[in-house]
Records
---
Amino acid sequence: MPASELPVARFTDPANRHIAVVGGGISGLVAARELAKTGVRVSIWEQEPTLGGRIRATELAGVPADMGAEAFASRGGTVACYLAELGLAKDIVYPAPLGSWVLAGDQALPLPRGGAIGIPAQPLSKEARRHLGIRGSLRAAIEPWLPLRSAKLGEDPTIADLVSTRLGSRVLERLVRPVTLGVYSSDPEKLRLSAVPGLDAAYQRERSLIKAAKKLRQASSAAGGAVAALSGGMTPLIRALEAEIRRLGCEVHPGVEVAELRSRDHGAWQLCDRNGAVLTRADAVLLAVPEAAAHGLVTLPGEAPEHDEVEVIALAVENSRLDTAPRGTGVLIAAGSVGARGQREDSAALDQPADQASGNVAKENLILAKALTHVTAKWPDRAAARPSGQHVLRLSYGRAGIRPETLELSDAAAFERARVDAEQILGIAIAAEQVVDRARQRWHIAAPSQNRPNVEAPPGIALSGDWVHGTGLASVIPGALKAAQELFAWLIAEPVHPCHSEPESEVRPE
Ligand SMILES: Cc1cc2nc3c(=O)[nH]c(=O)nc-3n(C[C@H](O)[C@H](O)[C@H](O)COP(=O)(O)OP(=O)(O)OC[C@H]3O[C@@H](n4cnc5c(N)ncnc54)[C@H](O)[C@@H]3O)c2cc1C
């Protein structure tokens, strides 16, 4: 009998319908909560033993330290509103107003304030001149008077093309590149204007990148700029969400990989493990897994992408010289940089390109880290949780398209490398015995240019996660809410076929 002739019932009792969420990162958890609030039966399947995905902490000298996301962009207040819904508003904390630094060549300087993604709001300011030299500052300062967009840049240019054309190569190399690498783990050549939230619209409106950067910062919407976190890091959000979805009756299955999705007649889906055993049957599935994993489960347009890798190494260090926060909240490091000499005032040196400033440096002396966060300087609550004089330094490795060099190293060698890099970046000696604990964590990440909000999935499947909605919690949380709402709307518009009420003979791992 053709499907259209089967007797159908309308969707009346949500509890009779089942939506499975695959992936227990922030995206899956937010979607699961949204769906569970409707009364529909919801299950969530996560391959790792714990929920949270790229929000994860480890104990460092007895105190939790974030190894993945450590903050959220406060643009638009979206994440703060969501946290308030979960009763976490009182736990929101803000970074110390120390600002971050950039290390290019051997020159470590505070990042000019008031701009966005490294684009200076005032290219002629003393701060900006220190980075760019007089020539570079003057070149950047004429930008507001240039015609809006040169035809050769196209509709959605890369940040590299746009910045070098409008502001000059010094702004690109000395400010923008270290910031995009640190914030987006992406070279500006791989980052499109549309992938930086708010920048394209502000640029069109203001007809100038400098003015757009200033407006973005004033509106607290600059990536890597206006950020906040929860007291103790971002994992309290995961714990609160887990408690909430369990309270709403969501079935939680940590440590279970969904290896296969089988499409059944009339739109139902079977979730199977590696042995082909059916884990559960669902009327609809929300895939909140990274793009490569989604490609393994359903047919999607395009090829599964190569993912970049990053490694985070965190050190707990007892060294009172760190009490003065020698490089603010942390440092973004341009490729090819060596030990920081600190601020320079002489303009002759400033007009020397950063790569020449480092001279012919032996490869082994180059700093491999792309960013260092002085966690206990940035977050006063994190400092208060530790004994006086104990600091946490978090270094990230892996520039876009290049495997982190540390991945090949043994634990001992990787931690030693991180200690030496930290010394060079911060310009202070850190003895090996002052490192009292250490941890490392490897991550796969999607390049931001791959975000595909309109990617089509088969009926009954919704896609969610940073590769769909954009990197970072401020994009992922609203994206997951929307994906859940759209999937629920699709489900209630669907007729109920008799096969959906088949008894489930399924494996139910705990
Ligand atoms: C080092 C680092 C630092 C970051 N810092 C910040 C920051 O400070 N602020 C910010 O906003 N963002 C930050 N981000 C980005 C942010 O962490 C991510 O954008 C966000 O956490 C992505 O969430 P997600 O749910 O889309 O994906 P994920 O967190 O990756 O969750 C996907 C989940 O799916 C699971 N999974 C995959 N395949 C299967 C399967 N077959 N079966 C079952 N489960 C499966 C995975 O185990 C994973 O738990 C950072 C990222 C990294 C790596």
Note: The first helix runs from residue 26 to 36.
---
Amino acid sequence: MAAQSIDADSAWQLILAAVNRESVTLPLPGTSQPALTLAGEARWSLHLPATADAQSLFSLFLPLCRPLPNGRSHQVIGQLGQSLDGRIATVTGASKFINGDDGITHLHRLRAVSDAVIVGAGTACEDNPRLTVRRASGPNPVRVVIDPHRRVPDGHHLFTDGQAPTLRLVAGEDTGEHRARLPETGVLELPCLGPEGSRAEPAHIIAILEGLGLRRLFVEGGGLTVSSFMNAGLLNRLHVMVAPMIIGSGRPAFALPEIENLAEAWRPEAQCISLGSDMLFDLDLDRV
Ligand SMILES: NC(=O)c1ccc[n+]([C@@H]2O[C@H](COP(=O)([O-])OP(=O)(O)OC[C@H]3O[C@@H](n4cnc5c(N)ncnc54)[C@H](OP(=O)(O)O)[C@@H]3O)[C@@H](O)[C@H]2O)c1
């Protein structure tokens, strides 16, 4: 019998099977042959040789899938897809597409291992995204749009396509009344962001989502929203996908407070992986 090995497709099936699993040995999909053992404290080992692509998938995604470490009630991942000069869109907001095919597949995989995907109103307005998982297998996350002024058009996909539930977080005091009503599809509007014109604390947004049972959170964009979670110290990991493209002007990826000394800059532990079309920086913001 030919020796079996783990390719990227099998690795992805194993990763989906690993979500929230603690100590278990998982077989190679379609066989009974042990392939992946998950042990405590985020350790894992392979029983079969794996292709380079499969190894990359394991090292990027297994840390995101494992049971949340002791005492942590949620995990927040951010992503930004940027040009070499750190832009996520042109001045007019055009961002389709900065990243190549492999980068977009990576984005869909991040959605598939998350309970909820969060975008700001700017992204929802300009991109009219669906935020579903289409380029990989896996479940659609709950879609969350932070839309204090209700400026995202009602006809946009998030509110009309029925592919997954959408939470629209708008200005207003949180009465807690709606919490039990996360629909299977359709839109739930939650007034919870405080008075119109004020900025909601990202920690408050996380608490609202946690109250609905959403604990693995993926902040997909745009730059203002990702930066606000990062600046509040609430991102555990950040995936920055860099495309070999120079735009030369446009919307910045990061909007953080000014610093004078480089010692104050973020310099997290990082792994750098070529996705093919894009270079991915996987930043561990718990270890800055
Ligand atoms: N390349 C990529 O990876 C990527 C990913 C996503 C989006 N994009 C691009 O990025 C651009 C949009 O990004 P952006 O940075 O301008 O905007 P954004 O982050 O999508 O949205 C920002 C807006 O969301 C609302 N918001 C976010 N956090 C809030 C909070 N804590 N409290 C209250 N309101 C909050 C506010 O809406 P109000 O303004 O109504 O108060 C805020 O102005 C688009 O051009 C899109 O195409 C690129």
Note: The chain has two domains: 8-65, 75-256+264-284.
